[in-house]
Amino acid sequence: MKCITPLLLFFFAFLIKDVQGQSSKYIIVLKDKQHNPFSLNHPGQYLSAKSVERRRRQQIAIDSTDLPVTPAYLDSIKNAGEVAIINTSKWLNQALIQTDDASALEKINQFSFVRSSAKVSPRISSRREHETRKYELPVMPLKRIQKVQDENDALDYGNMSAQVKIHEGDFLHNMGFRGEGMTIAMLDAGYYHYDTNPAFDSIRLNNQILGTWDFVDNKADVSEEHYHGMVCLSTIAANRPGLLVGTAPKANFYLFRTEDVGVEYPTEEQNWVVAAEKADSLGVDLITSSLGYNTFSNPVYDYTYEEMDGQTAIITRGAEMAAQKGIFVTNSAGNSGQDSWHYIIAPADGEHVLAIGAVNYSKDAAPFSSYGPAADGRTKPNVASVGWGTVIADTYGNPSTTNGTSLANPNLAGLIACLWQAFPEFTNAAIFDAVQRSADKFNTPDDRVGFGIPNMRIAYEILDRLRQRKDVERILNNDWLKVYPVPFYQSFNIVLNPSQPSKATLSLYNVLGQKVYNRSIMIESATPVRISVSDLAYLSPGIYWLSYPDGKQSRVVRLVKQ
Fold it and tell me: Among 369, 417, 419, 372, which residue's Cα sits nearest to residue 390?
């Protein structure tokens, strides 16, 4: 990709800052969390109420990975010499430190609680220019975009209508699901002037930005760094009716910076994991990240394709842990489709990370979109969204277009937030499954777009059927047939769990044995079902008997009409 001239000065500033800040950094992996003052019995010490509630709702146990790193271990490391602790990961039980004190490092390696140490120190490299270009987006003046606006649409999407409607996202929005109550953590390279950009006026005025943090420079402000995250945010949160309306304009957001665009080192993977842990502790519902790693500024740290196995990369291990905590994790598949690397990049290789490739409005795979599969043969990317000619907000809040799986990812992530808003009782895994099953190539996946382009109407119907089935199972309570309400007035419901597909007959008899109602029904599968019997106002109040035979099972139930 070519540089964007108006932003070159910012890139040079980032580059100089990184060169000046070089020093030796190490990841210290710890053996355990013994002597920890925090307790699994008191999760409120380190997890928010919303985070604990997410675990309760999804029946996820709080375990040792939730405990902070043992403070006494960190004190020992810090006191070993000239050592600064940059950050810690409780999920991976490791610390990122900075030191040039060889004797201190030797002492640290001798501690009984230290498993290993690995140097991840930045150095000047010929690859630096490549890393700077990695997150540049070729923002172009808006060309004519087909507006697919319908008079029944609840939102006036403006130039973003096609990228919403390719997923039938308007179906969710028209039902009132626009992200309210859902919290999304974005992990990116910076959110340049998001705090003054008119595209985000509404989320600022409505206090939908719940917090920000820069995990690279350890500060709260993320508005003076790279524009990449701001552009990604616009696909979800832009709200300028008639011009730009994103896929979840009512969601809440945390904006975290974890990527330093001037270099590429495993320290940034560590930053990502630490930010994901913070997002978890704050109780977010989704993490969406348009970052990825395969090669580094020093090739000694490069991953091989064989390591894109969902288990190896630091960032992938962190993303998998986030999913285990009940968070829905989405990530861009990568833009390496035309490069020698060719494949997806971490953490898109994670088994429980929804890796999102790029297509255009005609549903053609973008040539730059990274290929699957994962190294162990799993389908990757999982699905695809519009990342080729995507409409975004530029730094002035006006419609522009650009390319990249970086845009496809948040565009779909916003709709997933709306879908989960509609079905809050379901787990992240159930939502993940419904999204994949709704895609247009679910039965014929490939290595370009995975299972294809998800359809939010179909995903909604999948989950609605599952909700109804769960309701029926709850009512049955291990029985195979129940009728409610009792007494009934003009109608009643039958819930049953048939043993096999069959033709059944419903008959209603009065106390004289006279048949007053008869209906044949087809039981299409041996799964729980609800049957409504209505239009019974003509019946006189009294006692009735309902007969249900289906050739395999039969039952007679006493009913009372009032």
Answer: 369
* Cα–Cα distance, 253 to 233 (Å, whole number): 9
Q: Which residue is associated with the tokens 């013994």? A: 34
Comparing CA positions, the residue from 73, 124, 82 lying closest to residue 102 is: 82
Q: Is 475 exposed, middle or buried (0-12, 13-18, 19+ CB in 10 A)?
A: middle
For the segment 117-139, what is each residue's pLDDT rounded down to a tens digit? 999 965 444 444 445 456 666 66
Domain coordinates in residue numbering, the chain: 23-119, 130-469, 481-561
Q: Report residue 458 as tokens.
A: 């179909």
pLDDT tens per residue, range 308-321: 999 999 999 999 99
What kind of architecture, by CATH, is found in domain 130-469? 3-Layer(aba) Sandwich (3.40)
Is 23-119 CATH 1.10.10? Answer: no
Q: Give CA–CA dist 485/480, Å, rounded.
A: 17
- Note the residue count of the chain: 562
**At residue 482, what is the residue type?**
K
Those residues with Cβ within 8 angstroms of residue 135's Cβ, 6 or more apart along the chain or in another chain:
189, 226, 228, 259, 261, 406
Residues pairing with 331 in the sheet: 289, 355
Q: What is the DSSP letter of 333?
A: -
pLDDT digits (tens, 9 = 90+) for 322-371: 999 999 999 999 999 999 999 999 999 999 999 999 999 999 999 999 99
